Amino acid sequence: MFVTFEGLDGSGKTTQAELLAEALRGEGHSVIATREPGGTPLGEEVRRLLLEGMEMSAWAEAALFAAARAELVERVIARALEAGHDVVSDRYVDSSLAYQGHARDLGIDEVYELNRVATRGLLPDVTFVLEVDPDTSAARVGKSPDRIEREGRDFRQRVLDGYRIVARKYPNRVLLLDGTRPAAELHEEIRGRLREHL
Ligand SMILES: Nc1ncnc2c1ncn2[C@@H]1O[C@H](COP(=O)(O)OP(=O)(O)OP(=O)(O)O)[C@@H](O)[C@H]1O
Ligand SMILES: [Mg+2]
Questions:
Q1: What is the pLDDT of residues 94-132, one digit of tens each?
Q2: Residues near ligand 1 with C-beta < 6 Å?
Q3: CB neighbours (10 Å) of residue 131?
Q4: Could you tell me the distance, in angstroms and rounded to a whole number, from the CA of residue 110 to the centre of ligand 1?
């Protein structure tokens, strides 16, 4: 099973990914947890460029995310799934569709095409989008935002709109959840949805 968490910065992705990985391990599953961008030596270098580096054109940004993702799929995710592990990823393809495709206006279908090639078409079984409004996102992220987090409120609103479009486009895979609910309650809902789904 391949599960991903998506949403704005501070929406609770890492919190829920960790709770899910822990719960699955507690049931005897072997779980590989990954995060994007990053998760491989090359990916961590690309992460640094993307989050701390210089300004860049939108397609360069999309291509760097896709490069890190290609490496992660090839070296970690596909191997783990083939070996029968579960994979829980903190962000994946849908981040690019929402941020670069919609918010940066490159086109969701165009950015999907780049990523389809880079990931050899590997999509999650289930994706949870944790919806929080742009102000909640900013409040949770706090004082030291990275290059993309420094984008303003309008940008975060466009990302949120992007995730909603993606959820409508892939209704069987992508589930929207209210990220302002208590973390423990969200975790229970996620467990329930996964049981239904599989
Ligand atoms: N359901 C929740 N309700 C209230 N606060 C939460 C909830 N989930 C997480 N938080 C808090 O919000 C902050 C951000 O959570 P978390 O790091 O899980 O988000 P994230 O989506 O991984 O953020 P980032 O994109 O910056 O990595 C943390 O301080 C966390 O404790
Ligand atoms: Mg996080």
A1: 999 999 999 999 999 999 999 999 999 999 999 999 999
A2: 7, 9-15, 140-141, 179, 181-183, 186
A3: 19
A4: 30
Q: Find tokens 């990302």 and name the residue.
A: 159
Return the SS3 of 84.
coil
Dump pLDDT digits (tens) for 154-175: 999 999 999 999 999 999 999 9
Cα of 35 vs centre of ligand 2, distance in Å, is 8
- Sign, CA dihedral 197-178-133-14, equals negative
13-26 vs 183-197: helix crossing angle, rounded to 10: 60
Token duo for residue 183: 């973390």
Q: At what angle do helices 108-118 and 153-169 cross, to 10 degrees?
A: 70
From the CA of 5, give the closest atom in ligand 1: 21
From the CA of 178, the nearest ligand is: 1
Atom of ligand 1 nearest to the CA of 90: 22
Best residue for ligand 1 mutational test, from 4, 5, 8, 14 (most atoms within 8 Å of Cβ): 14
Structural domains of the chain ordered from first start = 2-197 (3.40.50.300)
Angle ∠(92,67,85) on CA atoms, nearest 5? 45
